[in-house]
Design goal:
The chain has about 160 residues and is mainly β. The chain has one domain. It is built from one helix and 13 strands; from the N terminus they run E-E-E-E-E-E-E-E-E-E-E-E-H-E. The strands form five sheets. A four-stranded mixed β-sheet has the order 12-11-9-13. It has a three-stranded antiparallel β-sheet with strand order 2-3-4, with no helix packed on it. A two-stranded antiparallel ribbon has the order 1-10. Strand 3 and strand 4 form a beta hairpin. The two termini are about 20 Å apart. It comes from Serratia marcescens. This is Type VI secretion system tip protein VgrG.
Length: about 160
Amino acid sequence: QTSTIKQGQTVNITSGGQHTTISAGGQELTIKGGGQTATVTGNVTETYKNDQSTTITGTLTIKAKTINITSSDGVSVQTPSWKDNCHGLKWVATGANFAFYGSNLALTGASLKHTMLDISHNPLSISKTNFKLSNDPMTFTQLGALVTNGALRLSTKALAIFL
Protein backbone atom coordinates (compact mmCIF):
# COMPACT_ATOMS: atom_id res chain seq x y z
CA GLN A 1 0.00 0.00 0.00
CA THR A 2 1.19 3.47 -0.88
CA SER A 3 -0.42 6.58 0.60
CA THR A 4 0.53 10.03 -0.64
CA ILE A 5 0.08 12.77 1.92
CA LYS A 6 -0.31 16.44 1.09
CA GLN A 7 -0.31 19.37 3.48
CA GLY A 8 -3.43 19.39 5.60
CA GLN A 9 -4.34 15.86 4.54
CA THR A 10 -4.64 12.90 6.90
CA VAL A 11 -4.19 9.29 5.80
CA ASN A 12 -5.22 6.35 7.96
CA ILE A 13 -3.41 3.05 7.62
CA THR A 14 -4.54 -0.15 9.31
CA SER A 15 -2.18 -3.11 9.44
CA GLY A 16 -2.13 -6.20 11.62
CA GLY A 17 -4.66 -4.74 14.03
CA GLN A 18 -2.61 -1.59 14.45
CA HIS A 19 -4.16 1.69 13.36
CA THR A 20 -1.75 4.36 12.20
CA THR A 21 -2.61 7.94 11.32
CA ILE A 22 -0.17 10.00 9.28
CA SER A 23 -0.79 13.67 8.66
CA ALA A 24 1.22 16.57 7.27
CA GLY A 25 -0.12 20.00 8.08
CA GLY A 26 2.34 22.64 7.00
CA GLN A 27 4.69 22.89 9.97
CA GLU A 28 4.07 19.48 11.46
CA LEU A 29 4.26 15.82 10.55
CA THR A 30 2.43 13.44 12.85
CA ILE A 31 2.36 9.65 12.96
CA LYS A 32 0.26 7.86 15.55
CA GLY A 33 -0.33 4.18 16.26
CA GLY A 34 0.35 1.18 18.41
CA GLY A 35 -0.13 2.92 21.73
CA GLN A 36 3.46 4.11 21.69
CA THR A 37 4.70 7.67 21.45
CA ALA A 38 7.77 9.16 19.84
CA THR A 39 8.17 12.89 19.37
CA VAL A 40 10.59 14.69 17.12
CA THR A 41 10.07 18.42 17.25
CA GLY A 42 12.01 21.58 16.50
CA ASN A 43 12.58 24.36 14.01
CA VAL A 44 15.39 23.08 11.87
CA THR A 45 18.01 24.67 9.69
CA GLU A 46 20.43 22.70 7.59
CA THR A 47 23.63 22.66 5.63
CA TYR A 48 24.28 19.54 3.59
CA LYS A 49 27.43 19.05 1.53
CA ASN A 50 28.54 15.93 -0.34
CA ASP A 51 27.00 13.61 2.27
CA GLN A 52 29.82 14.61 4.59
CA SER A 53 28.70 17.76 6.38
CA THR A 54 25.41 18.10 8.23
CA THR A 55 24.51 20.99 10.52
CA ILE A 56 21.14 20.85 12.24
CA THR A 57 19.72 23.19 14.86
CA GLY A 58 16.66 22.30 16.86
CA THR A 59 15.42 19.97 19.54
CA LEU A 60 14.87 16.23 19.34
CA THR A 61 12.88 14.26 21.88
CA ILE A 62 12.23 10.55 21.47
CA LYS A 63 9.79 8.57 23.60
CA ALA A 64 9.06 5.18 22.12
CA LYS A 65 9.86 1.51 22.21
CA THR A 66 9.61 0.73 18.52
CA ILE A 67 9.18 2.42 15.17
CA ASN A 68 8.24 0.04 12.39
CA ILE A 69 8.17 0.67 8.65
CA THR A 70 7.97 -1.44 5.52
CA SER A 71 10.16 -0.07 2.76
CA SER A 72 9.06 0.63 -0.81
CA ASP A 73 10.74 -2.57 -2.02
CA GLY A 74 8.70 -4.61 0.45
CA VAL A 75 11.52 -5.22 2.91
CA SER A 76 10.40 -4.85 6.49
CA VAL A 77 12.63 -2.43 8.38
CA GLN A 78 12.45 -1.69 12.07
CA THR A 79 14.00 0.35 14.83
CA PRO A 80 16.08 -1.13 17.62
CA SER A 81 14.28 -2.13 20.79
CA TRP A 82 14.77 1.45 22.01
CA LYS A 83 16.78 0.09 24.89
CA ASP A 84 19.59 0.17 22.36
CA ASN A 85 21.16 3.40 21.14
CA CYS A 86 23.85 2.03 18.86
CA HIS A 87 21.86 1.42 15.71
CA GLY A 88 22.19 3.83 12.81
CA LEU A 89 19.48 6.12 11.50
CA LYS A 90 19.39 8.33 8.43
CA TRP A 91 16.72 10.96 7.91
CA VAL A 92 16.51 13.17 4.84
CA ALA A 93 13.57 15.54 5.18
CA THR A 94 13.22 18.38 2.71
CA GLY A 95 9.48 18.83 2.33
CA ALA A 96 6.08 18.31 3.90
CA ASN A 97 4.60 16.33 0.99
CA PHE A 98 5.65 12.72 0.88
CA ALA A 99 4.41 9.22 0.16
CA PHE A 100 4.41 6.50 2.78
CA TYR A 101 5.34 3.11 1.34
CA GLY A 102 3.90 0.08 3.07
CA SER A 103 1.37 -0.40 5.80
CA ASN A 104 3.14 -3.27 7.57
CA LEU A 105 4.55 -2.04 10.87
CA ALA A 106 6.85 -4.68 12.32
CA LEU A 107 9.82 -4.78 14.66
CA THR A 108 13.24 -6.37 14.97
CA GLY A 109 16.36 -4.28 15.41
CA ALA A 110 19.54 -4.43 13.46
CA SER A 111 17.81 -4.37 10.08
CA LEU A 112 17.23 -0.64 10.47
CA LYS A 113 20.96 -0.07 10.35
CA HIS A 114 20.88 -0.28 6.56
CA THR A 115 17.78 1.79 5.95
CA MET A 116 17.21 5.42 5.15
CA LEU A 117 13.95 7.28 5.59
CA ASP A 118 13.85 9.94 2.88
CA ILE A 119 11.10 12.52 3.30
CA SER A 120 11.33 15.02 0.46
CA HIS A 121 9.15 16.91 -1.99
CA ASN A 122 9.04 13.66 -3.94
CA PRO A 123 7.41 10.47 -2.67
CA LEU A 124 8.97 9.02 0.44
CA SER A 125 11.70 6.51 -0.36
CA ILE A 126 13.51 4.08 1.88
CA SER A 127 16.91 2.92 0.73
CA LYS A 128 19.90 1.08 2.13
CA THR A 129 22.24 3.34 4.05
CA ASN A 130 23.25 3.86 7.64
CA PHE A 131 21.52 6.08 10.12
CA LYS A 132 21.66 6.38 13.85
CA LEU A 133 19.23 7.32 16.61
CA SER A 134 19.54 7.41 20.38
CA ASN A 135 16.79 6.76 22.87
CA ASP A 136 17.83 9.87 24.81
CA PRO A 137 16.68 13.43 24.11
CA MET A 138 19.24 15.33 22.06
CA THR A 139 19.53 18.20 19.64
CA PHE A 140 19.38 17.67 15.91
CA THR A 141 23.03 18.68 15.80
CA GLN A 142 23.88 15.98 18.30
CA LEU A 143 21.85 13.46 16.35
CA GLY A 144 23.60 14.48 13.16
CA ALA A 145 26.94 13.99 14.85
CA LEU A 146 26.02 10.36 15.40
CA VAL A 147 25.80 9.82 11.67
CA THR A 148 28.92 9.17 9.67
CA ASN A 149 27.91 10.18 6.15
CA GLY A 150 25.89 13.37 6.46
CA ALA A 151 22.91 11.23 7.28
CA LEU A 152 20.62 13.80 8.87
CA ARG A 153 19.03 16.47 6.71
CA LEU A 154 15.87 18.27 7.72
CA SER A 155 13.99 21.28 6.44
CA THR A 156 13.13 24.38 8.46
CA LYS A 157 9.68 22.95 9.14
CA ALA A 158 8.95 21.63 12.60
CA LEU A 159 8.81 17.84 12.70
CA ALA A 160 6.71 15.85 15.15
CA ILE A 161 6.32 12.08 15.08
CA PHE A 162 4.03 10.07 17.34
CA LEU A 163 4.11 6.28 17.17
